[in-house]
């Protein structure tokens, strides 16, 4: 009688468990909480927030400039005139308003 060259059941179980662990860790590396897809989402969110921050910093700089130009130490009369016209709806006595 000749002996069969089939692998034993233990070897098959070992390779199945190793394969399943490899599939699990590959899936976790791609789709998990710290995986590649999450890293791409975080990078995109970081870029969007950086753009928002730059825009807000520009707005703050503009507001600081306007505030300084209307301060007691430095008064820009043209800006004061513009603000009085737009906010208060005021006009000079020699002007005519056409609506």
Automatic annotation (TrEMBL):
Keywords: Coiled coil, Membrane, Transmembrane, Transmembrane helix
Annotated organism of origin: Ruegeria profundi
Keyword Transmembrane in record: yes
Domain of life: Bacteria
Membrane spanning stretches: 12-30
Chain coiled-coil ranges: 39-73
Protein name: Septum formation initiator
